[in-house]
Amino acid sequence: MSFNNQEQLSNAPKRLKYLKDFLSRLFWKGERNAEKEITSEELTEAPEDIEDLNNQFNELIKTLIALSSAANRQRAIYGEAPPGDEMAEDFNSYFTRNKSLLLDKGFIDQEAFDLLGTLARFMDEKSAEKDLEFWDDLEQHKDWEKIRELARLCLVKLGKEKYRLQVEHQYRRDDNGRVTSQVTKIELLK
């Protein structure tokens, strides 16, 4: 759930006032894609031991809490980056790539596995639509309420519905006040 961009990984587009929001969205997407390329080998490797898998499971819980939260809380959790596609990428990283191990090692049961799978398929459908507005319009788009509800149901099924997140952001800014990097620390509270 947390990401550490210590240095800028992609080129920042020239910012024109009327394109500010659109270019900002493209910039942060470029940052996330560059980070994914760098860490893709780590993410595709199976966790080496039960402690690594436990850490992946905790990150999944953090992601589910973020997905189940209201739009303003989602923005607070993810900081300056648009949270929609970031949450989808986190969910993919922590559930989709580890789902068999999570089931085999008893972190989730078959019913939770099926419910998480339903959420994964729904988010994959939304990703396939290539609708950039969906990933940014966290308040108005009706499908975000379906995602929030599915995430809440997953948390209840996993017995984690009372867990909360404590979030701390640190930003590095350029001379114009634009964010050049963001370090986020997210702690899971019981």
Q: Could you characterize what this model shows?
A:
This protein has 190 residues and is mainly α. 59% of the residues lie in helices and 11% in strands. A two-stranded antiparallel ribbon has the order 1-2. Strand 1 (164-173) and strand 2 (179-189) form a beta hairpin. Helix 2 crosses helix 8, helix 4 packs across helix 6 (110-128) and helix 6 (110-128) packs antiparallel against helix 8 (142-158). The longest helix has 25 residues, at 20-44. The chain is globular and about 50 Å long.
| Secondary structure category | mainly alpha
Q: Report the total helices.
A: 8
Summarize the main sheet. Answer: 2 strands, antiparallel
What is the share of helical residues? 55-70%
Query: Low-confidence runs (pLDDT<50, min 5 residues)?
Result: none
- Computed over alpha carbons, the radius of gyration is 17 Å
Overall mean pLDDT stands at 79
